[in-house]
# Entry
Amino acid sequence: MELRHLRYLLAVAEHGNFTRAAQALHVSQPTLSQQVKQLERSLRVQLLDRSGRTVRLTDAGEAFARYARRALQDLAAAERAVLDVQDLSRGTLRLAMTPTFTAYLAGPLVAEFHERHPGITMEISELTQDQIEAALLDDRLDLGIAFDDSRRPAVAATPLFVEALGLVVGAAHPCAGHPGPLPVGELDIDRGAYRLALLTRDFATRLHVDGYLAEHRVRPHIAVEADSISALVEIVSRGTLATVLPEAIAREQPRLYPVPVEPALPARTVVLLHRDAAYRGAAARAFTELATGWAKARGLTGGNPLA
# Structure
C-alpha cells in the first residue's frame, strides 16, 4: 500500500466518478482504476461499488476512508512540522474569520503580522463560524477568529477581547447625538421612531441582535437587510435608518453617531480558534501572540480563560 492509493481512493469517493477523479488528479483513468483495484487486492476487500451510475464507497470502503483521511491529514501536519522554520523566515499561515471581523480586525492584524514576518505567506478566508470549525477539524486552517459560542468538542479557543455592540445613526437622523439612554422599547415597530438596517441572518451579529430584541419583546421595523458591513455604514450614514454595529467599527466612522440603549446590548467574547491537540507551527504561535498582545495593548481584553 502506498500513499497515492489513499489519495486515489478518496478522490474517486469525492467525485463519484473515475473520469472526474482522474482529471482532478492529473492521471489517466486506466491508471487510476488500476491503482484502486491494486489497493482492493492488497486489502482483500471491495472498497467501491461500481454497479450504479455513481461510484460509491462500500461499507468497508467507508470505514477505510475515515482512517485514510486522518492519515493524510496527519502526514500533512508532519510535513509542515519538518518544514516549519522557527525563525519565521518562511512558512504559511492559514487564517479565517467571520465577516464582521474583516471590517475592523483583518487590516491591523494582518498588516502588523506581515510587517513583523514578511517571509510568511498568509491565506485569509472569510467564513461562517461553522465553516471555520469544520475547516480546522479537516486541517484546512491553522487559526480562526470568531465568537465563543457553542464550539465543537475538538475545537479549542484562546480569548482575545470582549466586543460590545451599539445602536448608531447618521447625521440626518433626528436622534443623532441623543444625550441619554434610549429605552429598548422605542425600537418597537409600533413606536415608529426607529427603522433599522441590519445584517442578514447569515451573520452571527444579526442573530445576536435578534435574540436581544426578542428577549425584550421588541418587534423591530427592519427596512433594509444587507450582507455587507460597508453597505450598512453607507446606508445609515446617508439616511435616516439606524443600525447595530460593533462599537469598534462605529468609533472609526465619523459620520455615525452612537445612541445609548437601555438595557445595553450584551457583549460577546471574541476568540482565536484552533484544533485541540493539533500541531501549531511557528507562524500560528506568532500570530496568537500578536493577536492577544494587540487586544491587551488596546485595553480590549476581558472574559475568562477558555478550554
